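Lab manual, section 2.4: Encoding a predicted structure.

Procedure: take the sequence of the chain (272 residues), apply the prediction step described in section 2.3, and record the output as structure tokens. A sample record is shown.
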Amino acid sequence: MKNGFDLSLAVLLAKLSKVAYEKFEDGNPFFEIKLRALGFRPVGKPFSNAKTQTQGCLVTNGRIAVLFFRGTEPNHLDVFTDLRLHLRTAENAGEHEGFFVALESITNEIALAMEEVRHLPVYVTGHSLGGALAKAAILDLCEPNWQGCYTFGSPAICTEQRACANKVPVYLVVNAGDIVPRILSLSPRIGEFLIVCAKGVRAVAKRLEWKTDDLTKWIEALEGLLPSLATYRHFGEIQFIPEGGKIRMLPDHSESMKIFKAVFLRDIKLVF
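Recorded output:
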């Protein structure tokens, strides 16, 4: 129900987000075994697009339905999706190109499966890239029975203006040391700082007569993306998990820079 952040529901959705990493497209039996352990079953077949390497599934326990997406895996297509940072234009203005194109590749499958759960409240979730896809889904595919979106360590996906189309509560669970939720909503100054650092590394590499072609490409790419990076904004309510592990709500995004700076002083940790 649309009545605020629910910690027990968040824990359940986090577990389903983790199950999403099981290779169901390869017939992995542990996928359904782990779903059954949580009391869920798939609605139809899981979604998978080999071209974009985008995966997700709609599941139900008879009381609710959950649409979840798989996060970033160590393959070039997922990384490419994450790095397509340019904002789309025209009718898709303000959207992260990589995330929304990935979602579009399985949209028809999602719409077909949703026909079977119109009588149930639906929640959408995912970790990392999966959380980005979950937020893209509530902007592009939302139905009246969709009750909320819980994401874990997910990046920003659009501009503030595009986020105005959102019609359901969004809860962003953010770990203290996870850089991913902050990288697309940084101040341009941080981007400029990273460029300066990269150029410094390149200068040293040249003196040592190391190859710097790839580093130069990254510097050029980041310089070209700075205008877009400055416009990405999170939307929804941030649930912050500090090092002590006790979750708390951030009233606004004012702590984001302080948290980001702290990342450089400790090991980077993920939610899972």
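Check your result against the sample. The longest helix spans residues 188-207.
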